[in-house]
Specification:
The protein is mainly α. The chain has helices at 2-17, 20-23, 27-39, 43-58, 97-114, 125-139, 142-155, 160-173, 175-187, 191-200. It has ten helices and no strands. The longest helix has 18 residues, at 97-114.
């Protein structure tokens, strides 16, 4: 009887230790895997790893997520020295050679920033949304990228790189929203945002 009890007890312990929950990676490990995949150019696998990291945070009571909350695009003109003219970045039906060259220059600059290496900034959920958004942007999925940048900013309103990346995604999607995000990022000390603002918003 005692032998049967011991065997049963050992089987229960073994099944607990080998359960998917016990063997699953932590969010930090998924993030590291995501970075490795991103560096290797395997963006779809990187997105899957970032998905898994976010799922790990969602199931944790220590890191609650707000997936439906969205922060409005902020202009903050009254607090900034940078003046925004909403009509500055509009396309006309008749383009001069200079305007076409300017558009090509903007496209080249945005591609440069989009293809820049992914930098580790931490394991917080807002940062993971930023990483995944950047990966979507690398794949050309601007809608998914914008959703992730919105979520990142809703979780961390001071995350200037998410504002900058959202502006990048909006440069050709909704240019009227790009400049206010660049202003907000500049106010938070983002140097590349100043460079892009000077190019597309002045």
């Amino acid at each position: 009887m005692s032998t049967l009890f011991k065997i049963t007890f050992l089987l229960i312990i073994f099944s607990l230790l080998t359960s998917p929950y016990a063997l699953s990676q932590s969010p930090s490990e998924f993030i590291k895997t995501g970075f490795t995949n991103y560096r290797n150019g395997d963006y779809k696998s990187a997105i899957k790893s970032f998905d898994d990291a976010l799922q790990g945070y969602n199931s944790s009571t220590t890191a609650p997520m707000t997936t439906d909350s969205k922060k409005d695009y902020v202009t903050e003109n009254n607090e900034s020295n940078v003046v925004i003219n909403e009509k500055q970045y509009t396309e006309t039906s008749e383009k001069s050679y200079t305007e076409v060259s300017q558009k090509e220059k903007i496209d080249a600059e945005t591609k440069k920033y989009i293809s820049a290496p992914l930098e580790y900034m931490g394991d917080e959920p807002a940062k993971v949304y930023l990483y995944r958004g950047r990966t979507y942007l690398q794949l050309g999925n601007k809608e998914a990228a914008l959703n992730d940048f919105d979520k990142a900013i809703s979780l961390d309103p001071e995350l200037s790189d998410a504002m900058f990346r959202r502006a990048l995604a909006n440069t050709n999607v909704d240019p009227d929203k790009a400049c206010p995000d660049l202003v907000a990022a500049i106010k938070r000390g983002h140097q590349s945002a100043k460079e892009l603002y000077d190019l597309i918003c002045k």
